[in-house]
What does this fold into?
Amino acid sequence: MIKSVTPETMAPPFARYAHGIADTQSGLVLTSGQLALDVDGTIPDGAQAQAQLIFSNIDEILAQAGTDKSHVLKVHAYVTDRSHMADYMAARDVWLADIPHLPASTLMIVSGFTRPEFVVEIEVTARLP
It folds into this structure.
């Protein structure tokens, strides 16, 4: 069974897609790329604050799908400038600090996102327990 995952505690997706998808047959959970849009419409300043909000939202998606960050297999992250890498990585390292394994990770520098205020986008692949 495939289940769309869009927690009501988050800002809704920008278009016709889900924040995440859980596939019970394969045991995988995939999130859409998450941007730092708070439920009230605000965007935090800076890469670290944006990454912290994004990881918090990813926790919500994973929980609704029936898993958590301890089952994350891969993190894909995108920043708009090399200057954002250290702040993103600091937030990522805090988010991963208490899990028993380290996931695979990709970090890319991209030219931008849907709004210029966004400087970080993150998506993860996880497994169901």
About this structure: The chain has a mean pLDDT of 97. The two ends are 15 Å apart (CA to CA).
